[in-house]
Design a protein that fits this description.
It contains 17 helices and 37 strands. Strand 7 (155-159) and strand 8 form a beta hairpin. 27% of the residues lie in helices and 30% in strands. The protein has six domains: 4-103, Rossmann fold; 104-130 and 206-234 and 244-299 and 306-328, 2-Layer Sandwich (D-amino Acid Aminotransferase, Chain A, domain 1); 132-201, Dna Ligase, domain 1, CATH 3.30.1490.20; 337-458, D-amino Acid Aminotransferase, Chain A, domain 1; 462-571, Glycoprotein, Type 4 Pilin (2-Layer Sandwich); 577-653, OB fold (Dihydrolipoamide Acetyltransferase, E2P), CATH 2.40.50.100. With 654 residues, the chain is α+β, with helices and mostly antiparallel strands. The chain binds adenosine-5'-diphosphate (2 copies) and magnesium ion (MG). One adenosine-5'-diphosphate binds at residues 131, 156, 158, 162-165, 200-203, 206, 208, 232, 235, 275, 277, 292-293, 443. Its cofactor is biotin.
């Protein structure tokens, strides 16, 4: 076994790899960007080395620099995790040349599966069923459009170099094809440096079912059963589980055989995942699934497989990389219970799931039996705009699917995230959704049920605002009393503090607040029952359940069933920001890069017309005109990096 490992990754997966490596007695070597200098994985590793500035292109993707550190630190092997360099064949080769073991498959296998079109042609020859479509080299728009028409709509345009759900567009009508093609190609060129696409049939009622495979250097190839990853948004997995609901022994063995064939076809070694798409309209059947792609690395959702098999996949990766044989054969493997994983993200479901950044003022998970938390950050850390905004994975294992989902829902209900917005309430709602519970779902489930799952703008949080206001007043009062050296009788009353408020005869005073960035003119009252808050136009519900309150540097965050409301005392400086908002200014919704500006100064635009595209976390967000009018200012240019809230375009009312 190796005595040291360099982890060429960050976040939760770096922490995950460190755990196993340490248990196996290895010295753990982290590499990090400037933005990650204080990150959890850096703190947990035995040693850490700076490799470059925040952008991944200048740090986590610079193979040569990482190899330099490996040499200097004397690393025996490099574990690439997932993403970044994990599926980079040149990097795998460079490791071999530098005499350090790459914990992953041979470069040839990575290369063979790296492009979706070539991979499909290859596995087809090994008699693995693939989705019908065009996987050839031609990229002429008219030609692809014609192929799409022949395949029949809906079709899916996919980047051949794609991953993470990017560079993918579903097209339902011929007239939409060209625009979708351009958009997919642009996103693909941007994210993967390769604009090429393929076009395939969009499978109806799609279920994403994938097989975990493992191979050693001695010709043994097994599968570790399936995972169902059909709960997705924008083609990205949100909840994954194992085994797949509705899976039969017959389908499992057919799918397992296909996966093992695909792995053998490329001389696979190590951990890999063969992803299939199944038409779920009539349940899973032995001839109703098709190969989509093979991910030649450890998968984000590997913990559900670990839960049901009792294996440590990272340990197996190390053993296989060190030349050991797989310690079992297919017949030795069994499924134990059911496991479900939820990906906890710093994003705002109420605002179209926009990534959210900032300091985690609170991050707390319950400690329960058969519950596993793989986190990449801890309370007090910040979520930065540079990388995938995943906070943690929450994994529950139960005797049955029902049991696992119940445990997961309970755990999510007890999880506290304050600071960046999170999808915790959304994930809990998903675990509790009756149709999903009953096993009736496909990849469109989330999109069809967004509102029911709480991913929609919500009415003003009056109860949270009032609770926050009272907490602020109590805090202010305590502070004033303490500094005045006043001894208190009973609960603190704001009227005990002569200079804190202007008293009126009826013991009511105006209390201007900033709630979620908006000015709110609340009124604070006080009688025998204690203090109360009134908010004009928003009756405050009484007799509410307990709300939690987290202090931040400038105010409070009130938590109500996972929903966060920021409350602080109104500050006149906020006012300026309100004015600008009302002026037809289109701002960057987040820290990102301006990819394109579609209008020019003086142009007359319609309400809803596309003005610009901003890209963040490798995903495009289109910005549209807030009203009909004339473009009077363009404040940014394509290629420019802009902070959240930066002015991009100003539209003057017609
Ligand atoms: P997996 O198949 O391992 O579950 P995904 O398919 O969700 O992972 O993502 C594929 C790869 O894309 C992963 O390696 C992950 O690091 C990366 N990825 C996922 N989401 C994002 C994102 N929002 N931005 C950038 N990269 C991402
Ligand atoms: P990536 O490399 O981004 O993971 P995949 O080819 O694995 O790309 O597809 C990502 C997701 O898109 C799948 O999990 C599935 O939900 C959806 N998808 C892919 N191909 C099809 C298809 N032919 N029909 C319907 N949905 C599909
Ligand atoms: Mg995939």
């Amino acid at each position: 076994m190796f005595s040291s490992v360099l982890i060429a990754n960050r976040g939760e997966i770096a922490c995950r790899i460190i755990r196993t490596a340490r248990r196996l007695g290895m010295r753990t070597i982290a590499v990090h960007s400037e933005a990650d200098a204080d990150a959890l994985f850096v703190r947990e590793a035995d040693e850490a080395h700076l490799i470059g500035p925040a952008p991944a292109r200048e740090s986590y993707l610079v193979g040569a620099r990482i190899l330099e550190v490996a040499r200097e630190a004397g690393a025996d092997c490099i574990h690439p995790g997932y993403g970044f360099l994990s599926e980079n064949a040149e990097f795998a080769e460079a490791c071999a040349k530098a005499g350090v073991v790459f914990v992953g498959p041979p470069a040839s296998a990575i290369r063979a599966m790296g492009l979706k079109d070539a991979a499909k042609q290859l596995v087809e020859r090994a008699h693995v069923p693939v989705v019908p479509g065009y996987h050839g080299p031609k990229q002429d728009p008219a030609f692809l459009r014609e192929r799409a028409a022949n395949i029949g709509f809906p079709v899916l345009i996919k980047a051949v170099a794609g991953g993470g759900g990017k560079g993918m567009r579903r097209v339902d009508r011929l007239i939409d094809f060209e625009e979708a093609l351009q958009s997919a190609q642009r996103e693909a060129a941007n994210a993967f440096g390769d604009p090429r696409v393929l076009v395939e049939k969009y499978v109806r009622a799609p279920r994403h079912v994938e097989m975990q495979v493992f191979a050693d250097r001695h010709g043994n190839v097994v599968h570790l059963f399936e995972r169902d990853c059909s709960l997705q948004r924008r083609h990205q997995k949100v909840i994954e589980e194992a085994p797949a609901p509705g899976m039969t022994a017959e389908v499992r063995s057919a799918m397992g055989r296909a996966a093992v064939e695909a792995a053998r076809a490329v001389g696979y070694v190590g951990a890999g995942t063969v992803e299939f798409i199944a038409d779920g309209s009539n349940g899973l059947t032995p001839d109703g699934f098709f190969f989509m792609e093979m991910n030649t690395r450890l998968q984000v959702e590997h913990p559900v497989t670990e839960a049901i098999t009792g294996l440590d996949l990272v340990e197996l990766q190390f053993r296989v990389a060190a030349g050991e044989r797989l310690p079992f054969s297919q017949d030795d493997l069994n499924i134990e219970g059911h496991a479900v994983e939820a990906r906890l993200y710093a994003e705002d479901p109420e605002k179209g799931f926009l990534p959210s950044t900032g300091r985690l003022w609170a991050l707390r998970f319950p400690d329960a039996e058969r519950l596993r938390i793989d986190a990449g950050v801890a309370e007090g850390d910040a979520v930065t705009p540079f990388y995938d905004p995943m906070i943690a994975k929450v994994i529950a294992h139960g005797d049955t699917r029902e049991d696992a989902l119940e445990r997961l829902a309970t755990a999510l209900g007890e999880t506290i995230v304050a600071g960046p917005r999170s999808n915790v309430a959304f994930l809990k709602a998903l675990c509790e959704a009756p149709e999903f519970r009953a096993g009736h779902f496909d990849t469109g489930f989330i999109d069809r049920n967004l509102e029911a799952l709480g991913a929609a703008p919500k009415p003003f949080p009056a109860a949270a605002a009032a609770a926050g206001a009272l907490a602020l007043v109590a805090r202010q009062t305590e502070r004033s009393l303490a500094s005045a050296g006043v001894a208190r009788r009973g609960p603190a009353s704001p009227w005990d503090v002569a200079d804190a408020f202007q008293l009126s005869g009826e013991r009511r005073i105006g209390l201007p607040l900033t709630v979620e960035g908006e000015r709110v003119d609340a009124t604070l009252g006080w009688d025998e029952e204690g203090p109360s808050v009134e908010i004009p136009g928003h009756p405050v519900p009484v007799g509410q359940h307990e709300l939690s309150i987290v202090e931040t540097d400038e105010g409070l965050i009130v938590l109500d069933a996972g929903r966060q409301t920021s409350v602080r005392l109104y500050d006149a400086l906020d006012h300026a920001a309100d004015e600008v908002d009302a002026g037809g200014v289109v701002k960057a919704p987040m820290h990102g890069k301006v990819v394109a500006i579609f209008v020019t100064e003086g142009e007359v635009v319609e309400k809803g017309q596309r003005l610009a595209v901003v890209e963040a976390m490798k995903m495009e967000h289109a910005l549209v005109a807030p009203r009909a009018g004339t473009v009077i200012e363009i404040a940014a240019e394509a290629g420019q990096q802009v902070p959240e809230g930066a002015k991009l375009v100003v539209v003057e009312e017609a």
